[in-house]
User: Fold this.
Amino acid sequence: MRILLVEDSERLQRSLGAGLRNARYAVDVVGDGREGLRKIQSNDYDVVVLDLMLPGLDGLTILKRLREDGNNTHVLILTAKDTVEDRVRGLRIGADDYLVKPFAFDELLARIQALVRRGHGSKNPRIQVGHLEVDTSARTATVAGKSVSLAPREYALLEFLAQHRGMVVSRSQIEQHIYNDTAELTSNAVDSAVCALRRKIEVPGMPCLIQTRRGIGYVLKEGEP
Assistant:
């Protein structure tokens, strides 16, 4: 899943960016409002974490422009303003959630996870596909009831496929949503990542879960053994 953090505090940029990457998210970080708006308009993000007090363009103006343009990206607002009026204003403009500074990182992470689930029409953090279960809250996976050890990138790929289960996703979609820097990717990076993931979640004699759609991409679904 790909997150955009728009925050002008360098301290929060470092701490939140590192924390989200450790939680297996691909993260872009910007500190200027105009750059943040440009990023949202030109990329596909699962969640935008948006500070209100920004240089260049304030957070509420960014949010208003997005909604006026029909952009429905989930937006979680960070703010030091904690009055009811401030929160109501942001929610009425189109914010999906609100978090008042200072806050616990675990709460931010939980709210992001909830917005990602909402974006895929699900309230259940567990996704079941055949003999595979992905817990998007604990960020773990089990195969035939047994826990699977996944590297951060492998889990990110699995969650992305699971959130789009039954749908074919292209290599470019995978690149954009799970890699922090697509400019440094090799031409076969996605194929190699899928092969590594298959080795960990496929069980001999049981249905194949990650299926290739040649020339298009991949789909996670229960198939034939």
